[in-house]
Amino acid sequence: MSGSFGKEALMSKDLGRRTGHAATRRLFLGTLSVAWGTAAWAAPTMEKMDLFEAGKGGYATYRIPGIVVTSKGTLLAYCEARKELRGDWGDIDILLRRSTDGGRSWSEPQVLADVKAGEAENNPMALKQGLGKAGGDLTANNPVAIADPVKGTVHFLYCVEYARCFHMRSEDDGRSFSKPVEITPVLLRFRREYGWKVLATGPGHGIRLRNGRLLVPVWLSTGEGGHAHRPSCVSVIYSDDNGKTWERGEIVVNDGVTYAYPREKGGGAQALVNPSETLAVQLNDGRVMLNIRTESLESRRAVTWSRDGATGWAVPVFDPELYEPTCMAAIIRHSEKPRAKRNRILFANPDSRHVPKKTGNWRGSRENLTVKLSYDEGESWPVAKVVDAGISGYSDLAVGPDGTIYCLYERGGIGADQFRTAYLTLARFNLEWLTDGKDKGE
User: Tens of pLDDT along 154-190?
Assistant: First the structure.
């Protein structure tokens, strides 16, 4: 099935105003090609399009979005496609869609991972907590892509039952992928220090460092706590030979062991609770910065740095400007000196600090998805703009060759449940929109 909807495509020209969902036309685009409007872009510009809709295409919901731009400028959007509303444990496939025209039209969804009965065993920690049954449905989870801008290869990692990890590669711009190769043995090396029973890559996207190193953050859990995802620690895996072999990095932070400090002077140390989904970006000086989700009562993102992206991690600090509702976030470099006049890093997550929390509740509300911009390599975030004021959760960011920003995010909730996503929506905008015309992107 393919085609073009032209002006029938879902779009939103909100120019930064909170127009609400009623002003946005909705159209299911899960199995059909779609198109942006044909009008020329005017600065500032924001457009939105639903790529996946709950209940369509044979899946109850779509979650855990990721997006990358290949060396040829192709957009690859991927996610977990969940056949039931059972949360993270259940019958879950991984789907991917391609766009070769800057997000104006999209291919039909392609199944990248569909674990059949007998191909794996159910995670014993999930069985112990009644999150599944022996011989039952199997989970493919936590997709992560790395689009190598130099070699052109697209690497793709995912997990099975939060217990095994696989790597695939594409040499044809994401049209097809190699047979999955299991790389779980590299993760088993962590057990010398941390007896994990549950593992996850990313999610979101990984990065390629200037020296060619491929880097993917991972989180590990003993699976004894809530949802078999807690307690947890964070590290990375990396490859220095274009994905042929993988190595493990040092453990970055460990629940109840590592302490984090607020960046502002005079702040005291606090326990960093259940670090998990982590983002990576390389800074202008060559260091790698990790931005870490936690369940700490500080309710701020934790940040740390390493010279090589694998060892020597600094004691993490809480970033006072980055609110943490206990949700996946996104980070990506937009531009870098000397190729551009300014260094720019983008960050996105639900900035719902305005929603009151119960005392001692570590979980905030997943709404008010906001994109922030830093000009000083993540030291401060002077620009912030709301992409979606409603229910909005996990997100990922990508930047096109022309500087266009793409944000694929979870929007709306089935029955107003913020953990049962109604849509995966693609927002496409430029720096002029994000900065109200103050930054032209030079």
Answer: 999 999 999 999 999 999 999 999 999 999 999 999 9
Do β-strands 92-99 and 110-113 pair in parallel, antiparallel, or remain unpaired?
antiparallel
The predicted-structure confidence for 295-305, as pLDDT tens digits, reads as follows 998 899 999 99
Residue 355 has pLDDT above 80, yes or no: no
Per residue, the 3-state secondary structure of 165-211, as one string, reads EEEEEECCCCCCCCCCEECHHHHHHHHHCCCCCEEEECCEECEECCC
| Separation between Cα atoms, residue 350 and residue 367, nearest integer Å | 5
- Torsion angle, alpha carbons of 226, 425, 291, 124, to 10: 30
In 3D space, the residue among 231, 241, 238, 223 whose CA is nearest the CA of residue 189 turns out to be 238
Eight-state DSSP code of residue 139: B
Domain 6-434 class, CATH top level = mainly beta
Q: Are 272 and 310 in contact (CB under 8 A)?
A: no
- Cβ atoms 57, 1 nearer than 8 A: no
Region at 15 (left for phi over 0; alpha for psi -120 to 50; beta for the rest): left
Pair type for strands 46-53 and 417-429: antiparallel
| 216 burial type by CB count under 10 A (0-12 exposed, 13-18 middle, 19+ buried) | buried
pTM for this predicted structure: 0.91
